[in-house]
TrEMBL record:
Keywords: Cell membrane, Membrane, Protein transport, Translocation, Transmembrane, Transmembrane helix, Transport. It is found in: Cell membrane. Forms a complex with SecD. Part of the essential Sec protein translocation apparatus which comprises SecA, SecYEG and auxiliary proteins SecDF. Other proteins may also be involved. Signal peptide: none annotated. This is Protein-export membrane protein SecF. Gene3D superfamilies: Multidrug efflux transporter AcrB transmembrane domain. Residues 111-303 form the Protein export membrane protein SecD/SecF C-terminal domain. Residues 330-347 have a biased composition (Acidic residues). It comes from Streptomyces lasiicapitis.
Length: 379
C-alpha cells in the first residue's frame, strides 16, 4: 500500500486526524477575508461582460502579421468604442467591440479592413443585439436560482435542513470567490463562464455530500452515548473522507490547469479561458469550503439543539470526572463488525468510539458458548 493510501486508511479508522472543526474560527476568518476581497474587487473593478450579455460585434480576421496593439487602435478608431483583441493560435485576430450598433457594423468592418490592409470580404462578423444579451443574462440568473432551490430541497430531504443550509452557504461562498477573481483578473464573462460556474457547483456539492453522508452514518444514536460530542463526530467525518476529497480535486484540477495555462495561455483560445478559469478557481474553492466551511457550520448549527447541548455537557462532565480519578474517558473499541454497547456506573449507554484514534491492544470479548444448553454444544 502506498503512503497516501496508508494515510487514508489511518484517517478513516480514526488513528490519526486533524482538528478541522475545533479550529473552525480560523477557517471562518480566512473565508470572510477572501470573500471581502472578492466583493471589493467586484465593486471597484466590476465584471468585464462579453458581447453576449451587452451586445456588440466580433470580427475574425484571416491569418495576418498585424500586431494586437495596432488592431486594437484601428478597431477603437473605427467604432468609437473600446475594443478587445486576441491573437488566436492560427495567427488570426479576434476583434470584439461592445456596444456597436448592428447597422454600423459593416462600416466598422470596412474601416478595419482598410486600416489593416485586408479584404473586407475575408473578415467574418458575428453580431449580437443588446436585447438578446439581456435575455441571456436573465436566463443565467434564473437557472442559477432554480439550481440553488432544488439543491436545498434535496439536501433537506436526504439529510436535514441544517446540512442544506450549510451547503447553500458554502455554494454562495464559492460563487462569490469565483466571481471576485473574474473581476480582479479582468477576464471576460461569457456563456462559457456561466457553464463553468454551474459545473463547479456540482463538484463543490459532491465533496460536501460525501462528508455529510459519512456524518449522517456516524452520528446515528449519538445522544445515547457519553464519549463524543457532535463536533468530534463531524471532525471524524471530515478526516475519514479527506484523502478522497483531495484525490478527486487534484485529478479534476490537472486537466483544467492544462486548459487554462496551455490552451488559454499559449494557444490563445478565448473560450478556453472563459471556462477553465471559472473551473479552476471554483474547484479549489469548492474543495476548501466542503472541508473547512460546510461541515463546521453543520456542527455549529447542530449543537444549538437542546439534545446536543445536553450531550456535550454529559461528555465534558464525564471527562472531568475521569481526569480527576486519573483515568481515561475512552475505552478500547470491541472487536466485531457490529457495534457493542457498554454501560457505565450510572447505567447510561456509552457506545463505542465513533471518533478518535485507537491505541493499545484490543481485548477479545469472552464468548459464552453453550449457555443454558446441557450439552454445551452450539446449535
Amino acid at each position: 500500500m502506498s503512503k497516501l493510501g496508508d494515510l487514508g486508511a489511518r484517517l478513516y479508522r480514526g488513528e490519526v486526524g486533524y482538528d478541522f472543526v475545533g479550529k473552525r474560527k480560523i477557517w471562518y476568518g480566512i473565508s470572510i477575508l477572501i470573500t471581502i476581497t472578492a466583493i471589493v474587487g467586484l465593486a471597484v473593478r466590476g465584471l468585464n461582460m462579453g458581447i453576449e450579455f451587452e451586445g456588440g460585434a466580433v470580427f475574425n480576421t484571416p491569418k495576418t502579421s498585424v500586431s494586437v496593439n495596432k488592431a486594437e487602435e484601428s478597431a477603437e478608431r473605427a467604432s468609437g468604442h473600446d475594443a478587445l483583441v486576441q491573437k488566436l493560435g492560427n495567427d488570426t485576430l479576434r476583434i470584439q467591440i461592445a456596444g456597436v450598433d448592428t447597422a454600423k457594423s459593416d462600416q466598422v468592418k470596412d474601416e478595419i479592413a482598410k486600416d489593416l490592409g485586408m479584404e473586407s470580404e475575408k473578415i467574418n462578423a458575428d453580431l449580437v443585439g443588446p436585447s438578446w444579451g439581456e435575455q441571456v443574462a436573465n436566463k443565467a440568473w434564473q437557472g442559477l436560482g432554480i439550481f440553488m432551490v432544488l439543491v436545498v430541497i434535496y439536501l433537506a430531504i436526504a439529510f436535514e435542513w441544517r446540512m442544506a443550509l450549510a451547503a447553500l452557504i458554502a455554494l454562495i461562498h464559492d460563487i462569490t470567490i469565483t466571481v471576485g477573481v473574474y473581476a480582479l483578473v479582468g477576464f471576460e464573462v461569457t456563456p462559457g463562464t456561466v457553464i463553468g460556474l454551474l459545473t463547479i457547483l456540482g463538484y463543490s456539492l459532491y465533496d460536501t455530500v460525501v462528508v455529510f453522508d459519512s456524518l449522517k452514518e456516524q452520528s446515528k444514536d449519538l445522544a445515547k452515548q457519553t464519549r463524543f460530542t457532535y463536533s468530534e463526530v463531524a471532525n471524524r467525518s471530515i478526516n475519514s473522507t479527506l484523502v478522497r476529497s483531495i484525490n478527486t480535486t487534484v485529478v479534476a484540477l490537472l486537466p483544467v490547469a492544462g486548459l487554462l495555462f496551455i490552451g488559454g495561455g499559449f494557444l490563445g483560445a478565448g473560450m478556453l479561458n472563459d471556462i477553465s478559469l471559472s473551473l479552476f478557481v471554483g474547484l479549489a474553492a469548492g474543495a476548501y469550503s466542503s472541508i473547512f466551511i460546510a461541515t463546521p457550520l453543520v456542527a455549529d448549527l447542530k449543537e444549538t439543539e437542546p439534545q446536543m447541548k445536553a450531550l456535550k455537557k454529559r461528555v465534558l462532565a464525564k471527562r472531568r470526572a475521569a481526569a480527576a480519578k486519573g483515568e481515561s474517558a475512552e475505552a478500547p473499541e470491541p472487536e466485531g463488525d457490529e457495534p457493542q454497547d457498554d454501560v457505565d456506573q450510572a447505567g447510561e449507554d456509552t457506545a463505542p468510539a465513533v471518533v478518535g484514534p485507537r491505541s493499545g491492544p484490543r481485548s477479545q470479548p469472552a464468548r459464552n458458548r453453550g449457555r443454558g444448553r446441557p450439552s454445551g454444544k452450539r446449535r
